[in-house]
Each structure stands twice: as C-alpha cells, then as structure tokens.
Amino acid sequence: MFETKEQLAQGVASIFRILDHWRLSETELRGILGYPFGTQLSDWRAGELGGITLDVIKRLGTIASIFKKLQSTPEAGTTWLHQPIPLFGNRTPLARMASGDLADLIAVDDYLKLRSGVDTSNPI
After folding, report:
1. What is the DSSP letter of 85?
2. Contact, 58 vs 109, CB < 8 A?
C-alpha cells in the first residue's frame, strides 16, 4: 500500500482528514484506529509515525475504501454512518467500525461493496 515513509505520511494525513470529516468522538476515532496507546494518536496526527503496525495500515486502507464508496452519498457518508442498519443488529455503521475490531471495520467495507450501485441513504 505504501512504498515509502513519505507515502505513508501522506496516507495517514489523508485518513485523518477523512476521520475529521466524519466528525468522530475521541472514543470512536480510537476504536476505528485500533485503540492506539498513550500519545500514538496525537503523534500520528503530527506526522510522527512510530508504532504504525500492519494492523493500523490495514485499517487505513479500509477507511480509505469506505470513504471512496461513500463519496456519492450525502455529506460523503456522514449521515449514513449514523443510521442504524438492520444487518448490523440495528447498530450504526460507525458503532460497528469503532468497536476496535478490524473485522468490524472490514464488515462495513464489505457491506458497502455489496451495496455498490444502490442508494445508501436508505439502509437495509
């Protein structure tokens, strides 16, 4: 996904812009990124990328994929992220993504793949 440290830094900065656009709470942000320890979150925001693991890199890619799929929805998916989805046990996609489990983040991405071409403003 990232071949150089510069590409990783640019990717991380882009992901933080996406996460900021989604107007997440601190808890949601930490959950989506796998509950980084101590100051890692603020360090990553500042471009200090020590402690970025393969798990985090997978999360970054999944976040980018979700964002890309939501580009055609109102507010680039911000509204959709807060709508309960029956398939998720009436939890919101954001609640699922913020569980801290990479599999839940991937499940939201997979759900959107299945919904490709379908209006995501009307949850199933």
Report:
1. B
2. no
Full residue range of the structural domain in which residue 95 is found = 5-114
Q: Which residues contact 61 (CB under 8 A, 6 or more apart)?
A: 1
CA–chain centroid gap for 86, Å, is 20
Residues of the chain whose pLDDT is less than 50? 118-120, 122, 124
Rounded (to 5) percent helix, strand, coil in the chain: 60, 0, 40
Closest CA to 62 of 104, 5, 10, 117: 104
Is 29 within a domain? yes
121 in a structural domain: no
Record the pTM.
0.86
Q: How far is CA 120 from CA 78, 90, 117, in A?
A: 11, 15, 9
